[in-house]
Amino acid sequence: YEYDRPLMKTQVPGPRSKELTKQMGQIQNNTAINFFCNYEESRGNFLVDVDGNRMLDVYTQIASIPIGYNHPALLKVVSDPNNASAFVNRPALGILPPESFVNKLTEGLLTVAPKGLNRVQNMACGSCSNENAFKAMFIWYRNKERGTSIPSDADLSSCMINQTPGCPELSILSFSGAFHGRTMGCLATTHSKPIHKLDVPSFDWPIAPFPRLQYPLDEHVRENAQEEARCLEETEDLIVKWRHKGMPVAGVVIEPIQAEGGDNHASAAFFISLRKIASKHGCAFHVDEVQTGGGATGRFWAHEHWGAEDPADIVSFSKKLLTGGFFYRDEMETDKPYRIFNTWMGDPSKNLLLAEVLNVIRQENLLAEVTRTGKALLGGLYELQAKYPNLLSRARGQGTFCAIDICKASVRDKLILQARDNGVILGGCGDLSIRFRPALIFKEHHVHMFLNVFSDLLAAH
Amino acid sequence: YEYDRPLMKTQVPGPRSKELTKQMGQIQNNTAINFFCNYEESRGNFLVDVDGNRMLDVYTQIASIPIGYNHPALLKVVSDPNNASAFVNRPALGILPPESFVNKLTEGLLTVAPKGLNRVQNMACGSCSNENAFKAMFIWYRNKERGTSIPSDADLSSCMINQTPGCPELSILSFSGAFHGRTMGCLATTHSKPIHKLDVPSFDWPIAPFPRLQYPLDEHVRENAQEEARCLEETEDLIVKWRHKGMPVAGVVIEPIQAEGGDNHASAAFFISLRKIASKHGCAFHVDEVQTGGGATGRFWAHEHWGAEDPADIVSFSKKLLTGGFFYRDEMETDKPYRIFNTWMGDPSKNLLLAEVLNVIRQENLLAEVTRTGKALLGGLYELQAKYPNLLSRARGQGTFCAIDICKASVRDKLILQARDNGVILGGCGDLSIRFRPALIFKEHHVHMFLNVFSDLLAAH
Ligand code: FES
């Protein structure tokens, strides 16, 4: 059902996109708009815009489209009259769930539960998933400190006015270059770009260095191990330091691959050691898989590549999973109602679509496909960087979750625009990187379509 | 298409609900679950549960169902094949909006724009709407302080590590008893119940007293005016005090009727004076209409009852509007991309449904209907409280957005359960109140259905 190639009619944005963008400027900030889309006409890996341009999409709505546009299996879910009620009657899931919801969780999210995490809390987006994961860690930590889940009278009265001990001086340790969302709790752990954080009050929480590795990883094992050891040591120092400051670290949050921050990888050994350090100091360990989860690394979760028996206490997700939420260990469960709560607590219509996405992933064996496609993609990037060493460097990736650095930000930005005018949608991340975030149905011939366009642009540079 | 009355087969929760609740306990915290629902069989004002009980719903999923269950107009939106794409291709709205989105905003949200607020930012739920409204106020305030929207080098570098001046010491002033959401920024302005806030770190932001009025308002004009004057004075003192503390108030946030906190009303004069005090001290004025917006007070926005020419700088919404977001004045616009931003920025499929909800509200003249129904409801409550002065007090409301206090929390909680077993779903709020939150299609005969059940219970007490 898919298109076989890009088809360009105008530069992007074309006249119709420009007109609509102008109109949007009358209503809200329009400065981030790339172009307007014709989603009805988009298919599989190809995004069609309002000027009739058809582009190979290697960015997929900031990595949030799991199996391409208008997948027939998903269209069938929506057209099934039995499902209509789920789309028009959005319940308050925490108090009045639909009959089918237990089954939807059991046959859906729980089939992809990370090792050791038997429980899952549904949420609606990456930010509320992380905010509530943080809250779960704070609650767990305070119950541990108190030795009971029963709050004191001082806890109960002081929390109502934002004061200690009820609103405790606790922190979440995050990493330089991290991105965990933009609501105020999440934002205090986000350190990607100034524009994300500027002018918003924050918490004085510890920020550890994320390893800055050399690529390919297997050619720099010794230096990289040293760099990771340095970061681990500093992390442990910060945990101790913040405890002495009177603001203990309740949880450590980290992405298995830092995405917005520039596609920064670290070794399995690093993450496993970090998890041990967190446990040693009584901190919960939260792996944020909002961007990495859902199969793009060739495993359903990026942390599966660590091969750890006990990878995390909490794993949060959203984007490709269409809903949000977090998996958690039994010990992280709250014992009282209304602590982890909001009106909607997710949206069952998204769980319906997710169940179908998971079926397609299994039926079409998409994780193995991603691994194969990813090899072709990374291989192609290695070749190009060997050919253009002054332009390209640091090709890296897992599955199709790949990136490459360009010599200068201005060159990077120009290449992205040129690629788009030639029918390929790419995204940037960090200061110098292009990130690749295709859907799970991106195949080797799509890789070659991209490589052809990209190498022509590099040759002409 | 609606049912004509409740029909009860078991106590609630019935055996099937109990079984499912037990199963849910294996997956996540199940302690807030009331019962499981059969949304397919629910119609209009009647919610059907999995044990075949059919109940008149006067709580509507925490006030989030605008025009009842399975409204034919909404079912039509979902079954229209032209809309399927909107349900399966969720875009990153901030960068790649669909062609129809400008129209959807113009024909949808903008037709209900509050006075003076020409711009609207779409978001996904009440929490991200308020979090981003807060961010917009912080950004606006800092630009004013700097005299330019261009950040200094110190701003840019310090914000990356959560430090001043980039992450400034600014505050949002909120009110005792307020509820603005549960993500960490929102939660710092929420002061409804300890369980909402306990164990979560917070900001040292000012909390002003919300007037504690006597009802009916028109019989206590003088005392209420005194109480409001006291609260206004204290609010102004707090604004000054926090400025001297070095943590100026960037914005004041308030609900037109405090909902979760116990359905606390204040006069139009109070809100208009408060808005003036905010302006006088250079603070933005944010009216949170997440629960009050959408018509339940008999006006589309509760703040319309103030009759103010210039009611607010920001008005946030969600719940009955199905999507989230906030309206704002031109001056509150950010000048740069990616400041108010996240992956999804809402969900166009919700805007589709909202447009239809707004059509139904107009076609069926539902705001006038709500006013009529609300009079019958409040009249009935007045009668009951005259008859049972030891049990009931403080009947109050605007439109169908009504509440009444019960002498003791335990009696309140018992009455809610008894009403449910007799086919009427009610919700509590605050310490002693029952709140009424029917859909906009709740008619006078539904009021009488409720009153019959309720007065029988009171008589038997
Ligand atoms: S914060 Fe996640 S949907 Fe609003």
Number of DSSP helices of chain A? Answer: 15
Widest beta sheet: strand line-up of chain A: 3-9-8-7-6-4-5
Largest interface, C-beta within 8 A: A-B, 127 and 127 residues
What's the helix-strand series of chain A?
HEEHHHHEHHEHHEHEHEEEHHEEHEEEH
Q: For the CA atoms, what is the radius of gyration of chain A? A: 23 Å
**Low-pLDDT segments of chain A:** none
| Oligomeric category | homodimer
Number of β-strand runs of chain A: 14
Give a quick account of the main beta sheet of chain A: strands, pairing sense, barrel closure.
7 strands, mixed
The N- to C-terminal Cα distance of chain A equals 35 Å
Summarize the model shown.
Chain A is built from 15 helices and 14 strands. In chain A, helix 13 packs parallel to helix 15. The mean pLDDT of chain A is 97.
How would you explain this protein's 3D organization?
Two copies of one chain form a homodimer. Chain A has 461 residues and is an alpha/beta fold. In chain A, 38% of the residues lie in helices and 13% in strands. The first copy, chain A, contains 15 helices and 14 strands. The first copy, chain A, has helices spanning 15-25, 60-63, 72-79, 84-88, 101-107, 126-146, 153-159, 184-187, 194-197, 221-244, 268-280, 348-363, 366-387, 409-421, 444-460; strands at 46-48, 54-57, 119-123, 171-175, 207-208, 249-254, 284-288, 314-317, 324-328, 392-398, 401-406, 424-425, 427-429, 433-436. Chain A has a seven-stranded mixed β-sheet, with helices on both faces. Chain A has a four-stranded antiparallel β-sheet with strand order 10-11-14-13. Chain A has a three-stranded mixed β-sheet with strand order 1-2-12. The longest helix of chain A has 24 residues, at 221-244. The radius of gyration of chain A is 23 Å and the shape is globular. The two termini of chain A are 35 Å apart. The model of chain A has no long low-confidence stretch (mean pLDDT 97). At the A-B interface, helix 1, helix 3, helix 4, helix 5 and strand 3 of A face helix 1, helix 3, helix 4, helix 5 and strand 3 of B. The complex binds FE2/S2 (inorganic) cluster. FE2/S2 (inorganic) cluster sits between chains A (124-125, 127-128, 183) and B (124-125, 127-128, 183). FE2/S2 (inorganic) cluster (FES) sits between chains A (124-125, 127-128, 183) and B (124-125, 127-128, 183).
